Amino acid sequence: MQDELSLVTYSMARMVDITHKKDLVRIATARGKIHLRRETIQLIKEGRVEKGDVVTITKIVAIDAVKRTSELLPFCHPIGITHVDADVRLFDDYVEVEVTVKGLAKTGVEMEALTGVSLALLNVWDMVKKYEKDETGNYPWTKISDIVVVKKVKLDESQMP
Amino acid sequence: MQDELSLVTYSMARMVDITHKKDLVRIATARGKIHLRRETIQLIKEGRVEKGDVVTITKIVAIDAVKRTSELLPFCHPIGITHVDADVRLFDDYVEVEVTVKGLAKTGVEMEALTGVSLALLNVWDMVKKYEKDETGNYPWTKISDIVVVKKVKLDESQMP
Amino acid sequence: MQDELSLVTYSMARMVDITHKKDLVRIATARGKIHLRRETIQLIKEGRVEKGDVVTITKIVAIDAVKRTSELLPFCHPIGITHVDADVRLFDDYVEVEVTVKGLAKTGVEMEALTGVSLALLNVWDMVKKYEKDETGNYPWTKISDIVVVKKVKLDESQMP
Amino acid sequence: MQDELSLVTYSMARMVDITHKKDLVRIATARGKIHLRRETIQLIKEGRVEKGDVVTITKIVAIDAVKRTSELLPFCHPIGITHVDADVRLFDDYVEVEVTVKGLAKTGVEMEALTGVSLALLNVWDMVKKYEKDETGNYPWTKISDIVVVKKVKLDESQMP
Amino acid sequence: MQDELSLVTYSMARMVDITHKKDLVRIATARGKIHLRRETIQLIKEGRVEKGDVVTITKIVAIDAVKRTSELLPFCHPIGITHVDADVRLFDDYVEVEVTVKGLAKTGVEMEALTGVSLALLNVWDMVKKYEKDETGNYPWTKISDIVVVKKVKLDESQMP
Amino acid sequence: MQDELSLVTYSMARMVDITHKKDLVRIATARGKIHLRRETIQLIKEGRVEKGDVVTITKIVAIDAVKRTSELLPFCHPIGITHVDADVRLFDDYVEVEVTVKGLAKTGVEMEALTGVSLALLNVWDMVKKYEKDETGNYPWTKISDIVVVKKVKLDESQMP
Prior knowledge:
The structure is a homohexamer of 161-residue chains. Chain A has 161 residues and is of the alpha+beta class. The first copy, chain A, is 36% helix and 29% strand.
């Protein structure tokens, strides 16, 4: 039995217990970038990407991803998301996505915001694959980077709805 | 930057912020029909549809669909559904499905009821495909129609549990 | 045991066995309508619906729904979808959605096309709720109808890729 | 119409209405076993199972399964899970899994704990298939058994957070 | 770097590579039991379980679970399921579920059959909770057991469709 | 009608038609980093992260994410994944994740590999949140970056299984 116990101790996989934490308004904003070729950005700006309207569709992907966070990340609790706001901004050689999530929850919503940003950036990549590939089907320039939490707050009880 | 901003403004995709709305008991009933051949309805009534018991299975599909609404519709918030009731009624040349959803929520549950009705009607179609197809594999008579919200209410706070 | 057997017989729930059917190119087109107030259609046309670009987002909902059909309908087999095309057409007092699905599959893809149309129409409803509600929060005019399979074909083996 | 009504009555499929039940802290513990060959258990203990670390991965499967219970079982309500704890214990000829679930909910969480245990045991099987199969690819010794609810409690309101 | 490498080696988590295995018809049958009170079985037989028709609904749960196996178990590959058959048999003090799965696949479908059986048995439990609980809300008699693979075969190439 | 048509044209959202492309063995490798505090990396190396074994669990998250890519990204086709391999490497101040995906498919699997990497990196973040937060609950150092496709190939027909 000793072996058994030590193995159990080692192989922990523990969801934090939030049962006794208060439901508070939690807000988190995350942001990230995808570096693309200038010509590709131009196609997005001109609405000429064959798969469709990159900006609108990327926002939808972000919202859907935020809602599925607790299915994708084992230690994330299911959370009552009350708002998602996604911005997609086009610069000369990169696209920036910023996602803000609000929830009335016992734990912060930064993983939800980060998941929204990450899937949104992946969707941008997926929609412009054709314009980013070289002749071998590889992507010498495309890169997702700088995914960070910009801001995370919780309102105190006096600010509760 | 001007172009960028105007594009962002155009390509809005905005989930309504319900953070500060009250949790109230919300109830919604939706209803719809699927038109089938009289012979098909007869088979359902006699329990002779090969795939199985259309009425029971359709109710299960409705319940499952109601619970997955926020995964299927981007702007639907995840909601704590507390009750689903599905009725499947057989008439001479159509089947009617009515779904009532209750939840303790910050927003109405009519999309949940409508999603339950829609998937339920699709399941009826799927279960009787064989009897509705013509010799080319097409469906000259089958039609889903009249999907409406029958009633939507919210209980005021004095009626809260 | 007799009771048991008869009950088993009655309570059938049977997925069709497609193991020995050929993989063929299957194509199905489904179509449906949502009746809206003329003012609401006008808002969609002018890009002034607060939740965002109804046409683009509805297409995305259709594509996502097509891919999830076998999760939503118990008797649908998982199918290798190879193409989805969704059209959203604005008329004076209704919106029409048409979805075409292609797959290399052992069974038809009409349920996939119908599921795409149904969820697409529900998304239109969800995005324009605000403009369709009366003062009691009900929907006296809004109605989904005429969901049909427009065309279903399978290519014979000589037409296979 | 009489036939219709009696059929409707028969074919009930009813989710319990929990709208007016109180949100209380609910805790449930479930447990089960999978019988394996002694040699297989030895491989797990020595960390030599080719697919990876059985104990850790099984815990993750349990947590994921708990969170998906209401998608898998039609009559389970979506519940705000606040904690999952999974233990995987290695004995001479079986592996025991115990899962404890907490939630702030209107209904008990025993189905969530049982679903966690069941999928965890299936994952153990899946990870050691290779060592349990006989030469025909069958499993003469492998068996899942004794899945029970060990304990189920709800805290009364004075113990609420 | 040495530490890093040894840790990587230890922490393996490896999906088997089936790229170069042949697509063959794979068939697997799994079976299991849930022990219930005799009075509960009687209620099922008489169609008096309040939540609905246990036998039919359990079959649907089995079919749905089979199709979702690769989402629930990390090392299961997505498989083109072509048939699921679920039997639910009522005995004096237990219910037996048997699930047969067929697929045209590069790997066996026994985990799919076992997942179908497991979720089916959980659904039986969930539907009869009310009749199995003692006064403390616990389950002194209810138990799931004897989940085994009854038979697993693959057809050789000459038997292929 | 002219307005209608021009709007449809503008609001395209088009899944590429891969019906007539060949099923070939497709392989893609993606890679990315998460920058963490040195102290956090040390805790991972020593197996002292409270939530559990970061390396093993991150691999499981990667595998699960790869299999769900077509649910998360609208334009990704469902693909028969035949292999996933995930490496998690610990450096002094960052963790690197590399995911290789194989499939027998009509289209490349780079989005699957990228989705695996992205969710894996998010899981690392989620598991070490506690050690990365400053006193305000924010993350001044944590950053995901350099997510790229390392290599993408397809085997030609002569190399097919």
